[in-house]
Amino acid sequence: MTSPKSSYVIQKLITVTPSPQLQPLLSIILSYFTQLSLDSSGCRVVQSMLEFSSPDQQRSITSLLCNTKTLLALASDKHGTYVAQACLPHLTPNPTALLALVNSLLGYTAMLGQHQCGTFFLQRLVGVLSTHYPGSGAACLLQEDILANLSQLAITEPGSRLVQAMLKDSQPTTVVRVARWVVENVKAVIITKPAVYVAGAVLEQIIERLDEEGSWASLLDMVVQGFIGPDKESSLRQSILLTAALHPVGHLLAREVVAKVNYMPEEMKMDVMRVLASEVDRLSMDKFGCIVLKGLAESVI
Question: CA 14 to CA 298: how far, in whole Å?
Answer without folding.
Answer: 57
